[in-house]
Amino acid sequence: MSNLNNLDGTVWGFADTLRGVYARNTAGDVILPFTILRRLECVMAPYREQIDQVVASTSIEMMRRAKISKLTGDAFNFYNTTSHTLDSLYAAGAQDLADGLLEYVAGFSEDIDVFANFNFPNHVSRLNKGGILAAIVRQFKDLPLDMESVPNERMGELFEHLIYMDFESSNAESGDHYTPRDAIRLLVDLLFAEDDQALSGPVTRTIYDPTVGTGGMLSVAQERLTEMNPQAELVLHGQELRPESYALCRSDLISKGQDPKNIALGNTLTEDKFEGEKFDYVLSNPPYGVDWKKDVEAITEDAAQPGSRFTPGLPPTSDGALLFVEHAISKMRPASEGGSRVGIVLNGSPLFSGGAESGPSNIRGWLLDNNLLEAIVALPNDMFYNTGIATYLWIFDNTKQADRRGKVQLIDATSRKTKMRKGLGSKRVEISEADRALIAGQYRDREQSTTSKIFDNLDFAYWQATIERPLRLNFACTPERVALVAEHKALSKIDGLVKVLTAFGEKVYINREDFMVGLGLHLGSAGIGLTGPQRKALWQTLGERDETADVCRIPTGKNKGQAEPDIGLRDTEIIPVGWNGYPKTYDARDKTIQAYFEAEVAPHVEGAWIDWDKTRTGYEIPFTRHFYVYEPPEPLEEIDARLEASIAEIMTLLRKVEEGAK
Questions:
Q1: Closest to 263 measured CA to CA, from 114, 396, 162, 128
Q2: Whole-number Å distance between alpha carbons of 472 and 457
Q3: For 597, left (φ over 0), alpha (ψ -120 to 50), or beta?
Q4: Is 60's pLDDT higher than 70?
Q5: Mean pLDDT of the chain
Q6: Burial (0-12, 13-18, 19+ Cβ within 10 Å), 422
């Protein structure tokens, strides 16, 4: 019998039996479904006699139409129509083991589709041909995976370990499939922190994970809520893209009494399997930097529909994290129906990616202007299995408490970490129970400190003003400039142009209008006529920037006579909303930008002006900047002292070497 304290190593150790038939990096294809089969068997064992009686007296069709719980009068929601167990199959002998095993898994209720998603029949055949099927069944048949020996939380930890080992051995990214439990527990604590009703008395809540993976986040949420309020019931929902992860999740939640129909298979971004449904809670750890180029047509079409979940904006196709944020927000109950809370794990990109009025910026602005974003917590680095980059927990609420309305709390929890005795991939630290309580306390108490700060929503808004400077050029038909005309893709095709320019002379003009009039007469006398685009290309090629030249004026149109901007000198200024004490409102835009220009630009740039038509509104959350602590450099005296000490040490060593040589 396996030692429960070493259960993780024992189960994965069965992979040694597969050598010669399976490569190490495919062992999970066998270990995971057999572990699930044994868990289902152990969970079902106390009900087996009842189930067998129902099976004997009920047609299969009726059993498929009705839940087993209705037929047995117990809260048990799956069944098996055979009398098999791994133990009975093994005892019957190896001759019929493969057929019996396939009959056994086929006898589970149709909601148990884990074995089809793992291609279990193919693996049984392969194990049988390799002569190791009986050995694998023997190893799994006595595993103590009953609910008493291995409660749901411990079973979740076992799955976590097996999944990590599977993806590590195959060099896959386990972080895309499983979120560390310490991170989930913190997210769940923050999610439940403001829901006083859920924490007392009988209550039912629904929760949804659009990137459910193997169901770890949902399981921890259920466990945590039960700890805080044993009378609370949490109904779990999720959607997953990968068939294997979906199968693991569904079978795990079925064994916990959840409705299997609430776990769906498919791409959340292109095929919402819970369209129109709303939930009390949404939590998710979407893949970082996910590329959605292959889905761009479907998502763009969706975004164009009235009331689309993606109406606020579309991020670049190289990073779809904010698409999952928009999707999660679309699953919130309206405030009039009680509202919802959302918790999402994201990397740093959604905080600041994209300039003013880009897709990411517009999404951030929509979240802030609609008062949805409540808090962001920066986690320690090296928290996740497949990445050491910075990660953040985002908390959303559409029914914020009064003192949180119009506010966003930022918590720097990067130092709240404990080094793990043994790392798992990139995961080298974890958040202890004490640190988790401290972080949740900072959030709950609205703490204002060096590691917890509260901002107005508009503290993250800014205006991007375009600053123009006048175009000043001198013009001449010098050999060097005429050579550029000869090399020009379009101008070089005009017959006789280079020859006529060479004959024009090398006089330098500081006024574009004078130059073009003189040059036009010269070209006309030679019978050369130019179109508008050709004239523009010609003066651009023959002109050179000259601060002493006259300002070039716009020759035609509604802005005729105004200074023409020099695109090469164009600049942008970022002006925070509320700059320098001006009102922190959108209405103060022009007044604030003008004041900023007069104070910060005009005194330093002669002739500059604001192009108001190019003014943009942007949003970013510069998390690190708000918690930056300046550390002065080491004094020169201390550096000199260290250098002198090092030199003295080196000289002492050299003298010893010299003495030894003598």
A1: 114
A2: 43
A3: alpha
A4: no
A5: 88
A6: exposed
CB 173 within 8 A of CB 19: no
Q: Cβ distance 331 to 340 under 8 Å?
A: yes
pLDDT for 4? 45
Burial class (CB in 10 A: 0-12, 13-18, 19+), 157: middle
Residue 388 has pLDDT above 80, yes or no: no
**439, 185 contact by CB (below 8 A):** no
Q: Which of 324, 337, 190 is nearest to 268 (CA)?
A: 324
Distance CA 54, CA 253 (A): 23
Q: Of 168-172, 566-570, 651-655, where does the model show the most confidence?
A: 566-570
What are the beta bridge partners of residue 281? 207, 341
Q: Encode 53-74 in three state secondary structure.
A: HHHHHCCHHHHHHCCHHHHHCC
Q: Whose structure tokens read 């694998």?
A: 136
CB atoms within 10 A of CB 446: 14
SS3 at position 518: helix
Own/partner pairs, 594-603, CB within 8 angstroms, 24+ separation: 596/465, 597/465, 597/467, 597/573, 600/573, 601/467, 601/573
Structure tokens at 107: 């006898």
Could you tell me which residues are beta bridge partners of residue 377? Answer: 393, 411
Both structure tokens of 301: 């079409």
Please name the residue that has the structure tokens 């306390």. 441
Length of the chain as a residue count: 662
Mind giving me the DSSP string for 584-596?
A: SSGGGHHHHHHHH
Question: Distance of CA 232 to CAs 76, 196, 226, 250, 260, Å?
Answer: 19, 12, 6, 22, 20
Going by DSSP bridges, is the β-strand pair 543-545/341-347 parallel, antiparallel, or unpaired? unpaired
d(CA 553, CA 551) in angstroms, rounded, equals 6
Looking at residue 22, its amino acid is Y
What is the DSSP track for 470-493?
B-BEEE---HHHHHHHHH-TTGGG
- Left if phi > 0, otherwise alpha if psi is -120 to 50, otherwise beta: which for 385? alpha
In sequence order, the β-bridge partners of residue 575 are 463
Tell me: pLDDT of 24 over 80.
Answer: no
